[in-house]
Each structure stands twice: as C-alpha cells, then as structure tokens.
Design a protein that fits this description.
- This protein is mainly α and 123 residues long.
- It has two domains: 16-79, Arc Repressor Mutant, subunit A, CATH 1.10.10.10; 83-121.
- 63% of the residues lie in helices and 7% in strands.
- It has helices spanning 2-7, 16-30, 42-49, 53-65, 83-100, 104-121; strands at 69-72, 76-79.
- It has a two-stranded antiparallel sheet with strand order 1-2.
Length: 123
C-alpha cells in the first residue's frame, strides 16, 4: 500500500478565476459576442457563475491582457478584434505537434516562415 501512495500526485483543481476565464474565452472564440459588442456586466457575470466580483474581474483582466477584450472604466467590457490571436494560437498548436514529431528540420522551416509572416502583421 505504501508504494501505491508514493506514486500518486496531488490533484490540482483549477481556481474559480481560471474556470470563469476558460468559459468566457471559449464563448469569445465561439463568436457568442461579436467584435465591439459589450459583454454582460461584472454583476451579471457574478450571478451567472455564482462567484464574487473579484473573481469575475480577475478573469476579465486575464482576457484583457491577452487582447481579447477591452474594459472601459464605467462603460463595460467590449470584444476586440482578435483574429490574429486565433491564428497565432493555431500556429503554436501546429508547432507543438511538429515538435513532438521527429522531423525537426520541417518544424524549423515552418517556424521561420511563420515568424516572418507574423512580423509583417505586427508592423
């Protein structure tokens, strides 16, 4: 019995902020709210998720840091145009898949090409 316990790792539960963030991000990516559209207020989101305003605010701040939304003091939180962010995530996911493969030269060619492409986007 002692050996079995030694091999187990502690289960990590996501924080409430993380859970709210994940759900909001998923809805944003699904297009539930369109670019420029106002998200529900912090108080409304508190009621929907059953969490405190501090938790909702932290999740919204995380989305704002990623550039998915913009919060205007006293005006609410609005969806930003994040189409380049979605493309960047797809790119990272593709690189991760390639990095797991044994063909590193293919990954390096893809990486170099896409870095130049993203550099043009952010000029």
């Amino acid at each position: 019995m002692g050996r079995l316990v030694a091999k187990l790792e502690r289960v990590k539960a996501d924080s409430l902020r993380s859970q709210v963030y994940i759900q909001l991000k998923k809805r944003l990516m699904e297009g539930v709210w369109k670019i420029g559209e106002k998200l529900p207020s912090e108080n409304e989101l508190c009621g929907v998720f059953g969490v405190s305003r501090v938790t909702v605010r932290a999740a919204l701040q995380q989305l704002e840091i990623l550039g998915l939304v913009e919060t205007k003091h006293g005006g609410g939180t609005f969806v930003k145009d994040f189409s380049t962010i979605s493309a960047e995530e797809n790119y990272r996911e593709g690189c991760n898949r390639l990095s797991r493969s044994e063909n590193n030269s293919k990954r390096h060619r893809l990486f170099g090409r896409n870095v130049r492409r993203y550099a043009r986007l952010y000029r």
